Structures
1.
Amino acid sequence: MKISVLAKENLQKEVKLDKDWDNADLIIEYLRLLEVEFVFGVPGGAIEPLFNALARREKDGGPKIIVARHEAGAAFMAEGYARETGKLGVCCATTGPGSTNLLTGVASAFADNVPLLVITAQTPLPKFGRNALQDSSCTAVDTVSIFKHCTRYSTLISHTEQINTKLIAAIMAANRTPNGPAHISIPSDILRQKPTKGSEIKIARLVQEFTLTDNDAVDKLTLMLCNSWRVALFLGKGCGPAIDEIMRFSDLTHAPIVAGPAGKRWVDGYHSRFRGVYGFAGHQSAHDTMEDDGIDLLIAVGTPITEIGTGGWHSHLLNDRLVHIDSTVEHFSRTPMAKHHVCGDLNLIFMQLNENIRQGMKWGRSWGAVDAIQQKFHNEKSEKAPHGYQITLNDPESCYSDAIPLKPQRVVSEFARHIPLNFRLHLDAGNTWAWFTHYYHRKSTRGYYHIAMGFGSMGWAIGASIGTCFGSKEPSICITGDGSYLMSGQEITVASQHQIPVIYVILNDSELGMVKHGQKLGGAEEVGFELPIISYAKMAEAMNIEGITIRTPEDLVAIDWQRLGEKKGPTMIDIIIDADEVPPMGQRVKGLADGSESATPGG
């Protein structure tokens, strides 16, 4: 969370106690001053005091409760809200199974460094250890210990006197670099007790970021740039706050740009220096750039260096040409071979670099303007290429195919051309990742393209698209498969209940597509991937939600995105796709088979 997202008047406010408050009211007051608009959760006996406080305080401008259909969906919604707004995402659940149901959503936020406050209940303290219903204390199914493995902070509040201190610690832990979820578990009797008078805490202290930039390391990198002729950029998911300065750096140095699957959200897909995605479902043009021996420095920015994002930690990227720039020291543990590391605020680092480069240019210093890879794509430009000449696609003709069932490549290409730029896009785990990573390119650089590849949770997009819509007040699109939807599709009724424009798109192939193609490509036994033939449009209509079935290219082109985005309520678009089209995921299959991945794009 950034201080700048909060109103200045709230930064100066202190948490003051009201004589009628209980501890649950105190928690809600903190959230109100942090300008958290929504809390996502599922009610239950032990968490009722918190729901009571939410109901009371909503009248005073406090956050509104959004009831999910499953606790994991609540955590996904909170994550989507936090990604969109930059504020703290908040989710809650009752004790026992309510808490354990949150776990997958919380783990997903942990893997992707999204700040959440996770509030769970406990049975009253006198019932601890007595085999009470849904007991999850330290003498039963110990949820505090369970959450310690997927949060930045996890604690039990066992006394009223601990509320202030531990709540402040949790909020600060969620917002400290690296960001992530923080968990507090509170017995229901503690929630109902009156708070004790404690220190009056200023909200600004809870959200302030303390960032130190290594200026000596920036100066050393400037010297390295002075001694280099050609440089290239590899952008990860964390480069968003600095993207304008990063693009200026590329302009000054003529550096070609390669992105990871989660980093492409910040790049204009038609930019003349963008070579596409390296890693999972990537592009030959990105692969060729990484292999180019003429590049002196390969600068990786804001990337945790994950398996999927780097082609299985391939040596094309991880070698002694690498310079790793990041705000999280932990990420450097995966690049010990790098020539140089620079830690700090990414925007400030690139502002300094750009100023140093401009000074050097005054003295006649320049960097390579056109490299062999760029010239190659100038020479080989195809008039039929659906995207810029600088990105090579597997089987580009399929992007224009009129075949029925629809080719997934055609679906994704049409989406890239026609989805309005203000719509937020969420991609669920599965073949959706591969098709959109490889074929979806557009001019938007606003970061409205969301993918959660840290933990790879099926159903993530189904909830996250709702949380994002609450935060942005703009239409959201969830792209998912029929397998994921059968797991978590009931959350569509949350969008219906609150009349928000979330558009659900199911790539319907009546199977677990990534499982099927992974088995085929890997030579495994083909088992367990079949799903029944289901009309998801009719399923939506049974819930009083508009359902649209897409079978032909004409149906696909006729989707009126603007109308759907202006509706008060969700839409289901059920797209029947060709189940036999092989997604560009061969390298992932190889990695599963032998423990190491080839960076060969698209398999």
2.
Amino acid sequence: MLEITKEALLNMMHPGLIMMFFGIASLFLPDYLRKPFTLLAPILATWSLFLIPLDSNLKYSIGKFFTIKLIYLDDLAYAFMLAFCVIAVLAGIYSYGTQAKLESAMSLIYVGSMMSVVLAGGCISLIVFWEIAAIVSTYLIYAKHTLKSRRAAFRYLLMHAFGGNIFLVGLLLYVFSYGNNIENIMHTYGQPSFWLILIGVSVNAAIPPLNSWLSDAYPESTVGGAVYLGSFTTKAAMYVMLRMFAGWEALLWVGVIMAIYGACMAIMENDIRRLLSYHIVSQLGMIIVAIGCGGAMGVDGATAHAITNIIFKGTLLMGAGIIIYSTGKSKITELSGLSKKMPITAACFLISSLAIAGLPGLSGFVSKALITSAVAATGNRVVGLLLTMAGVGTILSITLKINYYVFFGVPEKNMELIEIQKPPKTMFIAMILGTAISIGIGLLPQHFYNLLPEPIILNPYTIGHVLEYIAIFIGGSIPFFLFLEKMMPHDEYTLDFDWLYRKQLNAMVTWLSLILVRTFTWVETKIASGVTYVARRLNNPYLLINDRSSEKLKHFSFENEDMPIGQAIFAIIFALTTMIVVATIIV
């Protein structure tokens, strides 16, 4: 039964369900209708978000005690939803006409399910859309139709099935004990539901050692699929962590380890999208630090950096996709001096990489100011220092490394032979719009802060804060240019935590399988021998009492040889007893 509220009609305009409906419908449309249809979907979803009043509820009651809450919109959900709608529009423009029918449909369903996760007002609806997103997003990796993409998609699905099932069990335990509401669960610390929910969310949040699926899968996805994947799954996980774990101090150290680890792994990478994937882990670490800080500043810092990360990381993935689409190459060592051949891509990539590094005047500087203030409020100087080190890693890995070796460095002689395939104009339009948004947020920080869930007043452009980031840029740039040859990426595979379950765990499973096969083979042989033994003696009961003469009795016949009456009676009694016992066991 639908619970009617005064905004019931407006609540029917569920942005996530609109996206999912359009995704399913696009499967049955011809291409000339499907392409504009896929762009219309995120525009309508954005429009519907503006129509839904804050604090709205859309509930379905099943019986007297069970309710599914499809919509709960407060300031936090609205901020994430707005970012999701913006990047969905940009991704729709970017991938317009470049995706096949099924991939396009799965992209829309995936975005809709992630929007529905943010809007979910209860644990049941949350896990349903969480699982839908995990399944349909797998196809965005598989859709590249290569051996690597198929294997990566399979590993991605296994990892998210693992995380999803643990998350499901944790949520069910929590619902049975505390109710269906999505809320801060720190009061359950130490209980099984707390740890199961944490592990389940940690998979989607790419928290080490559960992070390897991200850098393994995203680089193998399609050009458009990478933009979708890099913008939604991990950010929805950040939203859930904000809801459930805000203020847990242990996350300070989890986040700072992630930030440094991701930056270090990115520095060593050669593949552009794999490098950007590792840097997603680093940026997520900064968000988790803010979540651990808690309070108004921590919540706003996490929300703000999640939003800015959605925009500039999405733009960077768009730029990487254009490089791959235009050149057919994704490794930094295969590219050089592209700024002359691809000036628009080079400019947008440079601005977005400066934004992610926190250059004053761009979006990253504005959002990182909140995180810095939140950490300072905790008085934990070590965490603040380590975050600064992670910031230097960002400058080295993305701002300097990719821009120098791919775009602005001295081109290699053979780079002139690279043929540039002209990408669709829609790719450039989306990338330029994403870059413009990062600039706009950086120039108008207070307007951006007004969108955040907690009311705060902060001026990020203080002299101390500006000088701090200028010092970070100088501190990162000097060693880079002093050691250019050392910073040059190498075409080697970087080992990650997945080595444990892709190599060692694989070897262990193989070893256990061999043991089980040999054990079962031995048991099967013994059982077969036993059955043969019993069957022969049931066929000729005389063998039961005179087994030593079995060879002589192979051609035994009662017609030419008498059996002693005692032995005959014993054989009959034994046979009847055996039949009764067998019948009793079967019954």
3.
Amino acid sequence: MSLQDKIRQLTELRSQARLGGGEKRIDKQHQQGKFTARERIDLLLDEGSFEEYDMFVTHRCHDFGLESQQFLGDGVVTGRGTIDGRVVYVFSQDFTVLGGSLSETFAMKICKVMDQAMKMGAPLIGLNDSGGARIQEGVNSLAGYAEIFYRNIQASGVIPQISAVFGPCAGGAVYSPALTDIIIMSEQTSYMFVTGPKVTKTVTGEDITIENLGGADIHTKKSGVAHFKAADEKEGILLIRKVLEYLPQNNLEEPIITECDDPIERIDDELNEIVPEDPNKPYDVKDVIHRIVDYEEFLEMQRLYAKNIVTGFAKFGGMPCGIVANQPSFLAGVLDIDASRKAARFVRLCDAFNIPIVTLVDVPGFLPGSFQEYGGIIIHGAKLLFAYGEATVPKITVTLRKAYGGAHDVMGSKQLRADLNYAWPGAEIAVMGAKGAIEVLEGRKLSQVENQEEREAMHQKLEEEYREKFANPYVAARYGYIDDVIEPRNTRWRIARALRSLATKKEVGPPKKHGNMPL
């Protein structure tokens, strides 16, 4: 065979590999509203940047008739490319090949790009669309999953790991995305569960649909497993590119600072009026966030889950940061189990990748009740404490209105080593609200006043005295727990200047293998 013949053979084999499971299966994929594995990579990466690995790999199984079902690439497309010029490593599961089921060689291909990503210190992106383990390969398939899981664990906190679920992700397959930093799901075409509807019905008797068991709505609203829900795959891929704007290549690099012509000294007078005079009246903290960040751009994470706390990425003067904010317009911004877990996870993500944390506080406390106590609010609240206390990135906290009790401590307090703590003039920092405090402290005295009007007047007077003496920012400022009381309209430039001054922060904790976080 001449060299030209060999080149023609190579070209034919490449064409064969690019067809995956064949035209019919590709058409079926499109009919279901899904892209193919290669189409997803083309949308994700910069044009012409993709370098594929292991295109000619095939499985090694000869049982159950698999020897007659050989497909080049064996159901997963792997390689490297660039996003906005930054090197990333990617694997994209191909449902057109044996349902995207994972074989020994399928896992080997994924492990190879994971190892490469770690060596090069580059983000890893997984596009998931798989029916799970290839049953015909038995324990070899399970071993393949475990090899991937181990690498996910080793890469955690070293390189950013992003998972997009664009189809089925069931059984053992769900644990790889669960071990990554960010999970994106697409509406109607993706689902995740450990055990499917049929087995669930057999074992428990529960009759439930795929969507209600593990669809994108469930995991972005109820379980909190997924961070973003995309309307379709195209939006999901754009979200991957957007998230990477805020993350560095690895844990040894800083996030990329971009040019910004939105002046940091921009003043917004409406911030002076944004918090209602009535301490019990809600407002939307996202209105505050949008007014203080660059170009009013805020990439919110887990938007539909635990809405009493807001987390997400933004920039100040082109510098990426993470924002954690209590949300007074939902459950009064109280901290509960879900909010504590959500915020703790986000704080740890920011700390792992050198992203400064800005905390906006308006919290009346932890949610009381047997449901919360039985669910372990003590442990879950401690997770948030642990995350803030452990974080060594620059930490800036602004108390907007309420900061009561243990919730004050949890939300980036000075004692958890926040670098700069600011408060707006109307902030109340105390063990509890004035009304509750007076009922505890002066309840007996008040009960002795028989006239209701007199009792109410006395209660109001005592409340005002309590606020003046304890529940204002100047008491905390007197002790140095608040570094400055700032005018709300100046919040943007105070934060932006603080971030610049803290850019060289270095903090090293005591030597240890790792802490024992209250899981």
4.
Amino acid sequence: MAPRVLVSDKLSPTAVQIFKDRGVDVDYLPDLGKDKEKLLEVIGQYDGLAIRSATKVTEKLIAAATNLKVVGRAGIGVDNVDIPAASRRGIIVMNTPFGNSITTAEHAIALMFAVARQLPEANASTHEGKWEKNRFMGVEITGKTLGIIGAGNIGSIVATRAVGLKMHVVAFDPFLSESRAEELGVEKVELDELFARADFITLHTPLTDKTRNIINAESIAKMKDGVRIINCARGGLIVEADLIAALKSGKVAGAGIDVFEVEPATENPLFNMDNVVCTPHLGASTSEAQENVALQVAEQMSDYLIKGAVSNAINMPSITAEEAPRLKPFVKLAEVLGAFVGQVTEDPIKEVEILFDGLTAQMNTRALISATLAGLIRPQVADVNMVSAPIMVKERGIIVAEVKRDKSGVFDGYIRLTVKTEHQERSIAGTCFSDGKPRFIQIKGINLDAEVGQHMLYTTNADAPGIIGLLGTLCGKHEVNIANFALGRNRPGGDAIALLYLDAPFPQDALAEVRAHEKIDSAKRLQFDVNGL
């Protein structure tokens, strides 16, 4: 059955056609996002939900979305989506960070010009028949220093435009490398230095706990007299009351504001100030940008629902359409390794180490880690997937460590999972052969070559004669057919393990009998999802 997507806000007909062309059933109901009750009533029918800003994806809506796998936001901001609630339910939340980058960057440059030359006031005055040449004395931007806070997608475009305008650009961004700064032609500086040197300051950072109120009375005091401030990013980055006070005192010569603390902003003290240019959150408002983000969200959601590719997800590692086929068997391997350890470990897990050896170390290890953790905790939490697993593991206080190394043995690449509890340490390793099927290659440090079966029995014991006969006799006694058998030992007479492949789950009373036998140290029933193996 084809996946089904609901479009509950306005999206271009081309975007809707993309869904159809890629094999996705789509219902285009652009006014449904405003009808909360109707949306709640129908959301359970859909695998995907495509939105803009009108639809509010609340915890209540997510609870009703029993089949929902992905929410796609045509735009950057996901303030209207309860991301923690979606993550706990294993729903991927995607945005489209690139579709309106140029548009927003151009709007910031336009506001900078407008503030520098007082264009809106001069326009209004001239339309009134006045000729106030001496009133509107502006400043050039050539040779001035532009301070960019946030040098990501949009900030970097602003930087290149500003360099082209012969401005000197300084940038603050904790994630900006020296090589990237050099490539953009900007100087990387600390925030206080940016405040002290910039003639113009433009904000291009998301709203987080660290960036909220980043422009306030204290930071304004560190700025040059006569600085001009532009904000096309997010309301809440600037304490508006502090900015207004600085504009009135002349400390700040002007401001261009596209976003506000409260939106829609129908009333605001900034509106009445001659040295402020205000626009109604127009950063992404061009026909090109609106079309681009609509097409992008349709492509991303279709690629995920049809191919398993993950792009621009807020709460999930990205998996490109090109790497998805190569990564898929190793994702299954990682999940199986986690499921094995999760089923045989009874004590609370305190630490997890995932080793990627050889070619696996060059893969998308974030996705592989998520798959491992999903398999690991699924025996305790049935409703978990790659999206929700990392959150659930973190909530349980489990420490997760990742190790990468070059090829160290006969396998081109493998994954080894080690978990620690208060009383013991367990490890298991696996790889994928040319057929793409996962294989166990080491358990408890004992080498073996074992496939994955739907129903299995795992035992540990001292290496001694009679174990195979014992297990075969017990299975025969309880009418359990053995499909296959895998054995391993560390040395003759040392520790040994056995994996029995069964046609049906091993009965609980038979399991108790195996565990009670003096030659058996431990026995565990295992069950794996073998679909696609």
